[in-house]
Amino acid sequence: MSPRTKEKFEEIRKDSRQNIVKTAMELFAEKGFHATSINAIADKANISKGLLYHYFKSKYELLDAIVFEAFEETDSLFDFVETQEYEPLEMIGKLAEMTFDSLEKNTELWKLLTGMAFKKHIQTRYKELIENKKTKYLQFGMELMQKMNVKDPLGELLFISAIIDGMSLHYLDNPKEYPKEIMINTFKKNLKLLYK
């Protein structure tokens, strides 16, 4: 039997880490962060507790990995849209579509993060990160609103964001029954009516 190559070792390490993160996310979403023990995560991931601690020193480090991954995905969504040649209304519609694609692909992750968003200890732990992201996304949105020549760019941005947030919450509440395509199409149609 040949020794493992460095690449194979790194692949195994990456897969093990991802398995732990995925398992923790599922358990945090199902049972809650505080009710989930390191033992439960290790058991469900079919690894030893020692191996879990090799990758993550604590549950909070695991939560950090989950939160940072979610922000990276959101950043990549905005980065992608910024590189495209869309008119502002098309860009907003595309962001709504991509938001729902992410919700559909990572429903449990977004349920977890949505539920945790209102917890004070979470707000405190990620305050700086959240503020930085809010600033970045707000700037992006304000530039779109200004390109549309609306009278109240901030008000209109918050209005559109609230609609997308509301649609997202309804989707997360019942993903199998939510009429995603109808809602996205209705949203885009009404954007065109509102911002002729």
Please provide a written account of the structure.
The mean pLDDT is 91. The protein has 196 residues and is an all-alpha fold. It is elongated, with a radius of gyration of 20 Å. The protein folds into two domains: 1-57, Homeodomain-like (Arc Repressor Mutant, subunit A); 60-194, Orthogonal Bundle (Tetracycline Repressor, domain 2), CATH 1.10.357. 80% of the residues lie in helices and 0% in strands. The protein has helices at 6-31, 38-45, 49-55, 59-82, 88-105, 107-116, 120-125, 127-147, 153-173, 180-194.
Alpha-carbon distance between the two ends: 68 Å
| CATH fold-level topology of the largest domain | Tetracycline Repressor, domain 2
Order of helices and strands: HHHHHHHHHH
Total number of domains:
2
- Give the averaged pLDDT, no decimals: 91
Taking all Cα atoms into account, the compactness measure Rg is: 20 Å
Can you tell me the residue ranges where pLDDT is under 50 for at least 5 consecutive residues? none
Q: Count the helices. How many?
A: 10
The percent range for helix content is over 70%
- Classified by CATH, the class of the largest domain is Mainly Alpha
By secondary-structure content and strand pairing, the structural class works out as mainly alpha
Number of strands: 0
Relative strand content: under 5%
User: How many strands, which pairing sense, and closed or not: the largest β-sheet?
Assistant: none
Named at the architecture level, the CATH assignment of the largest domain is Orthogonal Bundle
Coarse shape: elongated
